[in-house]
Design brief:
Blueprint lengths: L10 H5 L12 E13 L4 E12 L4 E7 L4 E7 L8 E4 L4 E10 L4 E11 L14 E3 L4 E3 L16 E10 L2 E5 L2 E6 L4 E12 L4 E5 L3 E5 L2 E6 L8 H19 L7 E5 L7 E4 L2 E4 L10 H9 L7 E3 L5 H20 L1 H16 L17 H37 L3 E3 L1 H12 L4 H9 L7 E8 L4 E8 L6 E10 L4 E8 L2 E8 L3 E6 L10 H17 L3 H14 L4 H13 L3 H12 L7 H16 L3 H14 L6 H10 L11
Parallel strand pairs: 1-10, 16-17, 17-19, 20-21
Antiparallel strand pairs: 1-2, 2-7, 3-6, 4-7, 5-6, 8-9, 9-14, 10-13, 11-14, 12-13, 15-16, 18-19, 22-23, 23-26, 24-25, 24-27
Length: about 650
């Protein structure tokens, strides 16, 4: 979650979210957990004993630190001899530090046992502010790995195996990763046993009631645990998940898990979270129109995040970028090339909202912050898409399949990914990774060209300019001619690159990078990026900075209807109705891109007139909205609703 920061410190300090503490590799390598836990839904309580086996990564390790949720109270930490060991729980950063009785030599293995209990109502302070990763309720419960509900070291990077015995009351069922067995426990209780011996990140679980809806698809069975209104959607989501898993098995190779389980969490939880064979989905994602994008993103993580994972958080662009790109590939597969182009545009806009740090330094960013996702997922996916241009489809698709197979159940680095790509391509690609992973910035091209008639054909001679000295990329050209368009590829190196290409038909115009495959700036892109930055500020309530970004968009294109509309939204939220009305009018007088701006500007003007006691003017705006016949995000229903009943602004205690 992006925190409020001092705006005068500049965009990087405002948006980058640098952690105050230095990142340091843990001095230990966790190898295996044995977890014995009891979950009591009626009390919203967890009681656990966890044995951790780990080895020292350096000589003389005297203290070890684990991350553990502040909601948990540790009653006892013991060593292999059963003797209690001093431990200090830090409430400021969700950690517990244990002083070992004897220092460990490098490679030496040790075991610690933690006994603790706590309550997870969902209102506790989360290790990731603003996102709920754990809650125990009478009807359901979920405990996800980022909740740190068991002692963790090397968050998202240190792979381990586990054995778990989770006891719940009869009538409940535990869903978790690994081979499952059940056995009798105490009176009125049942224990679920799980074992997963391949190193990954097991430990996310759900407690559910009732039997799942089973959705078979081409040999894949998806078990679905949805509640309430979402229960009616269970089979449809299960079928879609099976289709996506089947498709990705062809793209990424054999799936790590043959079947899937979908579990509904609750409001406040992440949109989606992937564990081995399990997808945890928030209720807001379970729309009547199947949300295949969230399914595709999380199913991609069965390969990119679980089968393999980043060796350090500086390499998270590989897994988060691949998951986002998997989502884009599914859109391309299911909706076609035009839908893919729209996805590329939106992803590139997100990638450009944060200029610093380079991808190879994303450990500096707060987990789950907008900046973190913009770089690791947005720019990460952009890197995958540009690498597809460099390698071309055949070799790129080989890379997507061979890399997970080569590094199955292992941690990976950017170097591993680069070397695998080079082996497939048969050439050096270090320049590409220096450009997009180790460096920052994006080019903005200027194109000049002249057309000559040759003896048989035509020649286009031109120059591509941009201001990045180290830039090097293949760039596509589309030449519109009297006949069919002709496509060429040129190499752009440095700040100025000349080219000469032959065409059969008479050239009419030359378009550089027609499919927008390069992460680059243009006037249109600067407008879109500024608007997206403004939206990010609105999401955290920083309206002053949001208005500055929207104004930057208008500085690039004063006719941008979307920029005017977003300004109107901010003023409306601030209850500055005259300024909001002015902005919505400007939106209607602009370029009307995207088209939905028109219908929603009329609706918002209607609301303003209702609030200010001008009912007839309000009705006129709602009627204008209905005449557009644009139903983006239910606009027609919204307009019809307020045509019948005036809009009332929400009550506030201070008013």
């Amino acid at each position: 979650m992006m925190r409020n920061r001092i705006a005068s410190a500049g965009l990087w300090l405002v948006l980058a979210g640098i952690l105050p503490a230095q990142q340091r590799r843990p001095a230990l390598d966790v190898e295996h957990y044995v977890i014995t836990a009891e979950i009591q839904p009626a009390r919203q309580a967890l009681t656990a004993t966890v044995e951790v086996r780990f080895s020292a990564l350096e000589d003389g390790v005297r203290t070890v630190t684990f991350e553990l949720n502040n909601a948990l109270s540790v009653s006892r930490v013991t060593g292999e001899d059963g003797q209690q060991i001093p431990a200090n729980m830090s409430g400021s950063d969700h950690t517990i530090q244990v002083s070992l009785p004897e220092p460990l030599a490098k490679g030496q293995t040790a075991r610690l046992s933690f006994r603790y209990e706590g309550v997870f109502t969902g209102r506790e302070e989360s290790p990731v502010p603003g996102i709920r990763f754990a809650a125990i309720n009478e009807e359901y419960a979920y405990l996800l790995y980022p909740a740190r509900w068991f002692p963790i070291s090397g968050y998202t990077t240190d792979r381990y195996s586990w054995e778990a015995r989770i006891t719940v009351p009869e009538g409940y069922r535990v869903v978790a990763e690994g081979v499952e067995k059940t056995e009798a426990a105490g009176p009125g209780q049942v224990a679920f046993l799980f074992s997963s011996l391949r190193p990954a990140f097991p430990g996310s679980l759900a407690v559910v009631r009732g039997e799942p809806v089973q959705s078979p698809y081409e040999g894949i069975t998806t078990n679905v645990y949805f509640r309430g209104e979402a229960a009616a959607l269970a089979d449809a989501y299960g079928q879609e998940a099976g289709k996506i898993l089947s498709y990705f098995s062809g793209v990424f190779g054999a799936a790590p898990q043959a079947n899937l389980t979908l579990v509904e969490t609750e409001d406040g939880a992440p949109n989606g979270y992937a564990a081995g064979g399990i997808l945890f989905l928030a209720p807001r994602m379970l729309t009547k129109e199947i949300n295949s994008r969230v399914l595709a993103n999380q199913i991609s993580r069965q390969w990119w995040g679980i089968l393999l994972s980043a060796a350090t958080r500086d390499h998270l662009w590989i897994t988060n970028g691949a998951a986002r790109y998997g989502e884009m590939l599914w859109v391309e597969h299911s909706a076609g090339a035009a839908a893919m182009e729209a996805e590329i545009h939106d992803t590139y806009v997100e990638a450009l909202t944060v200029e610093e740090p380079p991808l190879i330094r994303t450990s500096l960013l707060e987990d789950y912050s907008p900046e973190f996702w913009a770089l690791t997922a947005g720019k990460g996916a952009a890197v995958f898409n540009m690498l597809r241009l460099v390698l071309e489809d055949k070799d790129f698709l080989r890379l997507l399949k061979e890399f997970p197979d080569k590094f199955a159940w292992q941690s990976v680095t950017t170097g591993d990914f680069r070397r695998t790509a080079e082996q497939i391509a048969g050439r050096d690609l270090q320049w590409f990774f220096i450009e997009w992973i180790e460096s920052t910035g994006a080019p903005e091209f200027k194109l000049q060209y002249t057309i000559f008639r040759t003896q048989k054909n035509f020649r286009v001679v031109g120059k591509v300019s941009q201001d990045m000295d180290t830039f090097r990329m293949p760039v596509e050209l589309k030449i519109e001619t009297d006949g069919n368009p002709e496509e060429k590829k040129i190499e752009v190196i440095g700040t100025s690159s000349e080219f000469s290409v032959e065409t059969f038909g008479r050239p009419r115009t030359v378009i550089l990078d027609p499919n927008r495959r390069l992460l680059r700036y243009s006037t249109e892109m600067r407008v879109a990026v500024a608007i997206r930055r403004g939206e990010m500020f609105v999401e955290v309530g920083n309206y002053t900075e949001a208005l500055k970004e929207y104004q930057r968009a208008l500085d690039s294109n004063r006719y941008s209807s979307l920029a005017h509309y977003r300004i109107g939204e901010v003023f409306f939220l601030q209850e500055n109705y005259q300024s909001a009305a002015n902005a919505f009018r400007e939106a209607l007088n602009g370029d009307l891109e995207p088209k939905w701006v028109e219908v929603w500007s009329h609706i918002n003007l209607g609301k303003i007139f209702d609030v200010t006691g001008q009912r007839e003017r309000a009705r006129n705006e709602y009627q204008l909205a209905l005449r557009t016949k644009d139903n983006t995000q239910g606009a027609q229903q919204e307009a019809a609703k307020y045509l019948e009943q005036p809009y009332r602004r929400p009550e506030r205690p201070d008013r």
